[in-house]
Design brief:
Pathway: Carbohydrate degradation; glycolysis; D-glyceraldehyde 3-phosphate and glycerone phosphate from D-glucose: step 1/4; Carbohydrate metabolism; hexose metabolism. It is an enzyme of class 2 (transferase). It is a peripheral membrane protein. With about 900 residues, this protein is of the alpha/beta class. The chain has a domain at about 475-905: Hexokinase, domain 1 (3-Layer(aba) Sandwich). It is about 45% helix and about 15% strand. The strands form six sheets. It has a six-stranded mixed β-sheet, sandwiched between helices. A hairpin with a 7-residue loop joins strand 19 (about 595-600) and strand 20 (about 605). Helix 25 (about 740-755) runs antiparallel to helix 28. Bound molecules: 6-O-phosphono-beta-D-glucopyranose (BG6) (2 copies) and alpha-D-glucopyranose (2 copies). One alpha-D-glucopyranose (GLC) binds next to helix 22 and strand 23.
Length: about 900
């Protein structure tokens, strides 16, 4: 009696280290949480034992997946080739998946041979499958690849093998892209056309398989030959992948937990022995305590030891019991069968050449239970760590989630699932965790991933095709430059009144610093109307004082009658003078009027045609200075001496030239686009002075009005032109300026949406609204500093409900449109500066371009692309760009100062 009691005590002592209490499980869970963090962080990832591999799978199934795929399932206990057909629709009833599969045995020697030989076997099996199922060998078949080993994935269809695990140990593949190896093998086999779309780990594929029927499934778990888990992590925590919005499935590779010693306290001598005799000593420590490949062996080693010390079989040890692999995980499962377990145990032991007593059978069954119980406890601890992390990520009090599970241990061990579920629920009392067994292996899920990949690839292709016409080749840009040049020349000779007008400005010099006095400046034609007071004091560059006020011009005024427009301006001026307390000052004023005007003197300007968003009646053909004077007269409240009317380009050039004497070009890249520059008077037909140079307002926005840009004009541009206030006019401006870029973007987005490539194909009212994309939004959306989430919120402000992929595409469209604009303006500038260089007979020209306009100043990339293009297209000019600091008003005031000085002379 005593000896039986002692024996039991001794046996228990043996197994003591394998029994894990809840506080120990909680400790293990906390350790695993720390390991996950380490693996996710960019700094510690390289040294982490738990690798936390990003998978590029960003969502669980949503029912929109469809297509027909071949699938390979390699790395579990069975290698399978499959054909999977996915119909659109969620779940078993609505949608559906049909599968045909064949298991191909892998000869043992192939598992430890050369990698290429294994892949040749894989691809030959694939070909055999195609032939057997009469699948057309001519057609290209998309393929989904489940590969159940740790791989670093730069993209969904690349996988660099980190290490082999389980019973695979092949030469020549570690560190290589297994997708490439597979493709190589398929090529070697020949005679089939296969496109490997995606590669996924079995955990990921299992999560997707189960996610097809249960949308809450966001964890995939394998307890088979090996063990591993994946889950949907918040992308902001996945350091190794750019982006911070949404989720990404992370393959934890939890089998490696403990490889850095984190589990040392829990490791027994039997675990050490199993590890030492394995294919990969020191690696996959957690896996070796848990998974099917090792459970039987653990039981054998415990039983062997107990027999050796006389606790079993009266101390007898058979050869079979000494032989590695003689107790399998299937044996473990059989020994724990509910009713037949004890009998099975006896049969198994007898089969090993032993003669067990009833007590021996009970004791061995007990060993088996302890070993498998420890396995499910360890899985429960790590799984609860994952679930706790998800719960924290989402700031939830209770988490309701489904775990998709596969693997022979889970599927065939009679007690395992129940025990696992129970412990998980005990460790996480506040969560509702459902476990779903993957009914059909992992390939269904792999095909769902491939379906999404296929859709994205086809969407990518269509988006690229749509944006292709916006890409300017160097050749095209050279052509634009030479057309610009030709039209500048023709305009000077008065030969092309329909395109570039080349209007004399009657400004003969840039400022020399002698300008003095107080002037009023009025600035109409950009985004807003501005009134300014400028005071030039002694000393160049320093003593300019400036006060200003901004007024909006309502659309009904821009497009009402001329009288209303000028009355509105007079009212704004009146308000400004009140504001400055200068109603009675009778100041000289300069008027920046940013539309094409035919001038015969500095203080007259006949509006040739409205451009941009203005279309007030009875103005074209009239002197705008007169109209303003009359409006002031009508008001009969104050007096103004309008001494100069200037285009905004001219005002900008003068403003900047005040700072930099090399500034002889003025550029506006804002609502509209235009350039002025100092032209040699000998080249100007419509001249009236003997001065050497005169500033010419090119009105280059008209380039292309004769059809010369038709080869680069896209259907979207044509649509924007047709819907504009002045169809057929200002074609260059319509490709390059703030007023139109947003509209071009909107047209492209409309087209992409109609094609089902954006916003899930919903053409919303917001998208149909002209003008929603103002330049400022374009600038914001394209900002590199802006996260995708912010892009999405801008789009939401505009009434466009986008997801992460939509936001990426919208940003790309904006980028294509604004880049083309900047390149075209760059080509134009190259034409202008080269002309100036040639005018002056110079080998090399140093010149500064004064610039203004919201597109130039606020867009994150426009100015850079413009500078780069100008540099490439005008290599003999060294062009500096100087943004105007106080707008064109200061320049207008300078011109007024000179005009007044002249009057006084
Ligand atoms: C299968 C999956 O059902 O389970 C495989 O299709 C997976 O992808 C396997 O690797 C895991 O279990 P086991 O026991 O075969 O290793
Ligand atoms: C302003 C100038 O700074 O820029 C205006 O003062 C000019 O004269 C304007 O018309 C151009 O930019 P936007 O973006 O307002 O059209
Ligand atoms: C091993 C592999 C892992 C796989 C698991 C289950 O742990 O490293 O990638 O998911 O086995 O098959
Ligand atoms: C339009 C006008 C032009 C102006 C430019 C920038 O092109 O026609 O005069 O300079 O816009 O505002």
């Amino acid at each position: 009696m005593l000896s039986a009691f002692l024996k039991k005590k001794k046996k228990d002592l043996f197994l003591y280290a394998m029994r894990l209490h809840d506080d120990q499980l909680e400790d293990i869970s906390a350790r695993f949480q720390a390991e996950m963090k380490k693996g996710l962080s960019a700094e510690s990832n390289a040294a982490a034992a738990v690798k936390m591999l990003p998978t590029h799978v960003r969502s669980t199934p949503d029912g929109s997946e469809r297509g027909q795929f071949l699938a390979l399932d390699l790395g579990g206990s069975k290698f399978k080739v499959l054909q999977v057909k996915v119909r659109e629709g969620m779940g078993i009833r609505k949608g559906g998946v049909e599968m045909e599969e064949k298991i191909y045995p892998i000869p043992k020697e192939l598992l430890i041979g050369r990698g290429t030989e294994l892949f040749d076997h894989v691809s030959e099996s694939l070909k055999d499958f195609l032939q057997e199922k009469n699948i057309n060998l001519e057609k290209t078949h998309p393929l989904a690849f489940t590969f159940s080993f740790p791989c670093e994935q730069p993209t969904l269809n690349q996988g660099l093998l980190l290490s082999w695990s389980k019973n695979f140990r092949l030469r020549g593949l570690q560190g290589k892209d297994v997708v490439q190896s597979l493709k190589g093998a398929i090529e070697r086999t020949g005679g089939m056309n296969v496109d490997v779309l995606s590669m996924v780990n079995d955990t990921v594929a299992t999560m997707m398989t189960c996610g097809f029927d249960d949308q809450r499934c966001e964890v995939g778990l394998i307890i088979g030959t090996g063990t591993n888990a994946c889950y949907m992590e918040a992308l902001r925590h996945v350091d190794l992948v750019e982006g911070d919005e949404g989720q990404m499935c992370v393959n934890t590779e939890w089998g490696g937990f403990g490889d850095d010693g984190a589990l040392n306290e829990y490791i027994t001598e039997f675990d050490r022995d199993v590890d030492a005799a394995s294919n990969n000593p020191g690696k996959q420590i957690f896996e070796k305590m848990v998974s099917g490949m090792y459970l039987g062996e653990l039981v054998r080693l415990v039983v062997l030891k107990m027999a050796k010390v006389g606790l079993l079989f009266d101390g007898f040890v058979s050869d079979a019991l000494r032989t590695k692999g003689k107790i399998t995980t299937a044996n473990v499962a059989a020994m724990e069968e509910y009713k037949t377990g004890l009998k099975n145990t006896r049969d198994i032991l007898t089969g090993l050449g032993l003669t067990p007593s009833q007590d021996d059978c009970i004791a061995v069954q007990h060993v088996s239970t302890i070993v498998s119980f420890r396995s499910s406890n360890l899985v429960a601890a790590c799984l609860s760590a994952i679930l706790t992390r998800i719960k924290k990520n989402r700031s939830l009090r209770t988490l309701t989630i489904t775990v998709g599970v596969d693997g022979t241990v889970y599927k065939t061990h009679p007690q395992y699932p129940k025990r696992l579920h129970k412990v998980v629920r005990r460790l996480l009392p506040e969560s509702h965790v459902r476990f779903v067994l993957s009914d059909s292996g992992s390939s269904k899920g792999a095909a769902l991933v491939a379906a999404v990949a296929q859709r994205l690839a086809s969407r990518r292709k269509q988006v690229d095709e749509t944006l292709f016409p916006f890409q300017m080749s160097q050749e095209q840009l050279h052509l634009v430059k030479s057309r610009m040049r030709a039209d500048l020349e023709a305009g000077l000779k008065n030969k092309n009144p329909s395109t570039i007008k080349m209007l004399p400005s009657f400004v003969y010099h840039t400022p020399d610093g002698t300008e003095r006095g107080k002037y009023l400046a009025l600035d109409l034609g950009g985004t807003n109307f501005r009134a300014l007071l400028v005071n030039f004091k002694k000393g160049l560059h320093q003593n300019t004082r400036l006060y200003h006020k901004i007024y909006t011009v309502p659309m009904e005024i821009m497009q009402g009658t001329g009288e209303e427009l000028f009355d509105h301006l007079a009212q704004c001026v009146s308000d400004f003078l009140d504001y400055m307390g200068m109603k009675n000052a009778h100041l000289p004023a300069g008027f920046t009027f940013s539309f094409p005007c035919e001038q015969t003197a500095i203080d007259t300007g006949t509006l040739l045609t409205w451009t941009k968003g203005f279309k007030a009646t009875d103005c074209e053909g009239h002197d705008v200075v007169n109209m303003l004077r009359e409006a002031i007269k009508r008001r009969n409240e104050f007096d103004l001496d309008i001494a100069a009317v200037v285009n905004d380009t001219v005002g900008t050039m003068m403003s900047c030239a005040y700072e930099d004497p090399e500034c002889e070009v003025g550029l506006i890249a804002g609502t509209g686009t235009n350039v002025c520059y100092m032209e040699d008077v000998r080249n100007i037909e419509k001249r009236d002075a003997d001065a050497q140079r005169m500033c010419i307002n090119t009105e280059w926005g008209g380039l292309g009005d004769d059809g010369s840009l038709n080869d680069i004009i896209t259907p979207y541009d044509a649509e924007v032109d047709q819907n504009s206030l002045h169809p057929g006019k200002q074609r260059f401006e319509k490709l390059t300026s703030g007023m139109y870029l947003g509209e071009i973007v909107r047209q492209v987005l409309l087209d992409l949406t109609r094609g089902g490539l954006l916003f899930r194909g919903h053409v919303t009212e917001a998208l149909k609204t002209p003008g929603i994309f103002e330049t400022k939004y374009l600038s914001q959306i394209e900002s590199d500093r802006l996260a995708l989430l912010q892009v999405r919120s801008i789009l939401q402000q505009l009434g466009l409900d986008s997801n992460c992929d939509d936001s990426i595409i919208v940003k790309e469209v904006c980028g294509a449109v604004s880049r083309r604009a900047a390149q075209l303006v760059g080509a134009g500038i190259a034409a202008v500066v080269d002309k100036i260089r040639e005018n002056r007979g110079l080998e090399h020209l140093n010149i500064t371009v004064g610039v203004d306009g919201a597109l130039y100043k606020l867009h994150p990339h426009f100015s850079r692309v413009l500078h780069d293009t100008a540099k490439v297209l005008a290599p003999l000019c060294n062009v500096s760009f100087l943004p105007s600091e106080e707008g064109s008003g200061k320049g207008a005031a300078l011109i007024t100062a000179v005009a007044k000085q002249k009057q006084q002379m």
